[in-house]
Amino acid sequence: MEETHEIVLTVNGTHRTARAPARRLLSDLLRHDLGLTGTHVGCEHGVCGCCTVLLDGAPVRSCLMLAVTAAGHEITTVEGLAAPDGTPSPVQRAFRECHGLQCGFCTPGFLCTVTALLRDTPRPTEEQVLDGIAGNLCRCTGYQNIVRSVHRAAELLSEREGGA
Amino acid sequence: MGTRVFGEPVQRREDARLVTGQGRFLDDLGQNALAAAFVRSPHAHARILDIDVSGALDIDGLVAVYTWEDLPGRVGEPLPLLIPHPTLTHGRTGYPLARDTVRHVGEPVAMVVARDRYLAEDAAERIRVDYEPLPAVVGIENAARADRLVHDDVPGNVAAVLRQENGDAAAAIAAAPHVLEFRLAIERSASMPLEGRGVYARWDADDGSLRVYSSTQASTSVRAAIAARLGLPNGKVEVVAPDVGGGFGVKIVHPWPEEVLVPWAARLLDRELKWTEDRREHFVAAAHERGQLQDVRVGFDDAGRILGLDVRILHDHGAYTPYGIIIPIVTSTQLLGPYKIGAYRAEVTSLYTNTVIVTPYRGAGRPQGVFCMERTMDRVARHLGLDRAGVRAANLIQPDEFPYDQGLTFQDGRPLIYDSGDYPELLRKARDLIGWDGFEAERAAAASDGRRIGIGLGIYVEGTGVGPYEGGHVEIDTAGRVHVSTGLTSQGQGHETAFAQIAAAELGVPLGDVRVTTGDTRRFGYAVGTFASRAAVMSGNAIALACRKVRAKALRIAGEALEADPSDLEITDGVVHVRGDATSAVPLRTVAVLSNPLRYAFDEEAAAATQFAVGRPSEEAPVAPGDEPGLEGRDYYSPVRSTFAAGAHAAIVEVDPETAEITILRYGVVHDCGRLINPMVVEGQIHGGVAQGVGGALYERMVYDASGQLLNASFMDFLMPYATEIPKIETDHLETPSPLNPLGIKGAGEAGVIPVSAVIASAVEDAEGLRVDAMPLSPDALYTLRRRAEHDPALRTE
Amino acid sequence: MKPPPFGYAAPRTLDEALAALAAAPGGKVLAGGQSLIPLLSMRLAAPPALIDINRAAELDTLRTGDGGVRVGALARHARVERSAEAAAVQPLLRRALRHVAHPAIRNRGTVVGSLAHADPAAELPAVLAVLGGTVEAASPEGRRTIPADDFFRGPLECALGPGEIAVSAFFPAAPPRTGSAFAESARRHGDYALTGVAAVVTLGEDLRVTAARTGHLGIAATPLVLDLTAAAGSAGDWPAAAAHVRARIDPDADIHASADYRRHLTGVLTERALRAAAADALRRARD
């Protein structure tokens, strides 16, 4: 019987506990132990970016991290991007408005990546947008509407700041 | 009709769940299911001498291990040859688990079932298979040389020789003032959706029924295949395509070995069982496409008009032919594109190799055909010193020549007759969009800065919406909600939105009242599948026809209730009313109650309906002969033949004189898919297609070594473009409605990808003055071409 | 693609980590894991145990001063990339880090881990090598400082012995009138480069070239450092220096580039990087 470890971490603001072997990938822990299936797995070798989540606010590949290593940290997944009342975040809204997704499989990774990008760079240039999303593969959209979505999200965020 | 919804860029309805992580993809289902993993062949060609599973048996959590020996009856038979064809004389398919020989790396040899995927992989790793390696056949030329065979009983490695002929090409070429001969090559690529394949099966022992979820493009056919293999009636098998994370063709193949084995084992074990393909498996065990060698002979006159064209194509279809020779058929027929040429002959030899099977990937043989035709146009123009756009214009079918019969037989077995189009206008718009006529000044300006740029273009025609049929079912419930279902599946094309737009427009109901279900055999059992840019054309029209039935019924019932002539009624925002009189009205939800002569007033709506005159004369049956209770309707759309979309693309590229790196500076698309249901969605399809085309033109290929090992089976080395590799795509539209279907639409799903390799080749050739005959074109390949051209003037275009 | 089972220790100090490693012969140290975990998931590596040092806070350091930048074993690429102090002391570090994979990988991957992984196609080994930096290794027996020249032994092979952990790397500061540049060519943005070069050029008081060095990645089993001072001459004949490099190297072919192209491309990038480094040196000399 393989040894298991108790893993306590904060996911989308909630304390979660699971028991898993040391080899359980964070992506699998989120999806299969915690039931947060919004985080997708596209390659399991860290290239596609579908599994991107925020670790203490920074985008990381959840397939390139052991769940045990994530213990004690704060994780945000796509399920945690909307406001507590369910209102979609500006990034989520922008992707809908600009048709920034088709099959939706890569989308959670993009949304997490872009959420962090716009937090650090609220008004990104075209080049900063491309650089910011360059680690995420999308096979459907050709990226053009994703780039538009990022700019639109920046606009929505600044409107929100302005209104606050 | 209420608010205009058909033709509007309405936001997609599927997005609400997809942007919040609430989509349900295959691996999101069945969290408590057992997991399957496969032992797959590490050899391209080998005999299986022995399989020893004993090393795996002490893995904690192991449930079962199966090899071919364990498969009973039809479960262990070779997989079906889905699309037979008279010229496919030597079709061969594999077994669900290899029986005695493996013919490509990745072929499944044993299936392991365990508590989770980690443990299943542990067990799979410990199963020892003793192989006797056999010589592998890799590469088209090696396959054609046939020194070694993939199948002992297939001489020459030839599965099929397909000929398409219109006129006497040889004679026309012999009589032509100018003749050119050359060879073209396109390498393998693959659909490579970000979600791999997957199957999840639940056996209900009490009911003797099976529910299967598969990440497929053809759920109804998967059902038929599973039912046949497991000896179950169709009615005891449900197949559901959940949210599918991209398909692009690869998920049309069925049944995959896993689609037979997982349901079979789930029933045998009476346990939920799931297999989620991982990326490495997808590279070696799913399917690839594109690889062809083309020998072209063309005869033409002084104006560049093509008098005769003879193309001999060697097509690599991999180790088996489950999907028949669809790609060769499509390549050889769609090659002609928008042109009328004198005489044409194509001969495609479809060859076995010890590699993964080759089945349609977005474009499905068209990119190869268009590459051939458009490279030919450029060759002809260069040879005559004429403008490349001008030579194309000289060969175009004119707007007054439709319907235009190309004199060939298309993939649906029907004559290749183009229904409508305006190709000169497409070309004109493309030239305007990219600035074709002013380009020489641009080139000179760039050259003065030491920059090297070039321009290229390509035109294509795409047969879309192939039959035989699709169906739609529409039901309006007593809450006024409209439930639309169709059997074909979705992989991100926005069907839930587009089909809802059609239904809302046809019925006169708010878009928000419409709910669409696709790819679920519980809701609609008859369908063909999502491929060949057919979903909008086929299911779209079927749904429109079903809506018209329901609308007619609603008007009839409302007419009875309102004591009005149905022809005086219309539906606005879900309410049937006398035209011009909003007071004489009955909501559709009430009509739905009235449509069902039940005696139970089970809700407020039913009670409210009693104010209307209900019932038929007492001497007649409550449900009239030929009528049915319920406000619902079903209809099918079955076209005589395909409808033909078209487009023209143009690009400007820059090549680095030193590094040979290629940058696409501008990319323009002019596209005609008839009437647009949702322009935003169509544009998205074009963007995505072009991006895959850029991948195929500059980045993606499958690199096999001589022993049949795939050397780049990872996302590190199979170079799908990121955002940084894709240019901004400029688009313009043209609408020539199809006369063949009620909505006047043509397919749009594949269009973007089709001419991209041809266009990029044209532009790079123009920039470099070197012949570009092979795609994809890497900096390394361009550098090598430059070096060779230093010693070989024949490689230069001047 | 799931990792095989392995033993696991999560030490909180370096001493605990060394003890854990000593107790698990053949064990691997896990820091960022951005290279190790894919190898595990593909089952190309199956170490008996992982020593996860992510909780050893004492290794999470980044110090500038004392003539250079000292990067602790847990400092992530992103942290070093963002550090204005590090960029001021040794600008080449940031210039190269921007080419390391993608931001999400740099958020997790560590500089020292990348060095210990010793991938000849990676950026940081070439940077450490061209700068003449060092790696500090700790073992139960004590500590030792390993010069870059000795550290990289072969593809994915470094000088760390069994039971030894790389605790920091030291990148010497840029001397006065010294400029640097980094150039690489990858098939896609963020990919491993087909070839790449880190160039360092030093000018004399008279602004003539007194030293020119390049560190190359992707063309040999270990980072290749070339002294091009003589080839370039004091006037900075960069084409001649590039020609020297072309003649000197013997790169391999792989599925992305032929040996011939890689050699050619290395020459082109070397010339560009040297030119940029010289311009940088001139700028710094005039500041």
TrEMBL record, chain A:
Organism: Actinomadura fibrosa
Keyword tRNA-binding (UniProt): no
Keyword Oxidoreductase: yes
PANTHER family: OXIDOREDUCTASE WITH IRON-SULFUR SUBUNIT
Record-annotated 2Fe-2S ferredoxin-type domain positions: 5-81
Protein name: (2Fe-2S)-binding protein
Keyword terms of this UniProt record: 2Fe-2S, Iron, Iron-sulfur, Metal-binding, Oxidoreductase
PROSITE patterns attached to this UniProt entry: 2FE2S_FER_2 (PS51085)
TrEMBL record, chain B:
Matching SMART domains: Ald_Xan_dh_C (SM01008)
Keyword Flavoprotein listed: no
Location of the Aldehyde oxidase/xanthine dehydrogenase a/b hammerhead domain: 20-135
UniProt EC number: 1.2.5.3
Keywords associated with the record: Molybdenum, Oxidoreductase
One Pfam family here: MoCoBD_2
GO molecular function, one term: carbon-monoxide oxygenase activity
Source organism superkingdom: Bacteria
Record's protein name: Aerobic carbon-monoxide dehydrogenase large subunit
Lineage: Bacteria, Bacillati, Actinomycetota, Actinomycetes, Streptosporangiales
Gene: cutA
From TrEMBL, chain C:
Domain of life, per lineage: Bacteria
FAD-binding PCMH-type domain ranges (all copies): 1-176
Keyword annotations: FAD, Flavoprotein, Oxidoreductase
A Pfam family recorded for this sequence: FAD_binding_5
PANTHER family: XANTHINE DEHYDROGENASE SUBUNIT C-RELATED
Protein name: FAD binding domain-containing protein
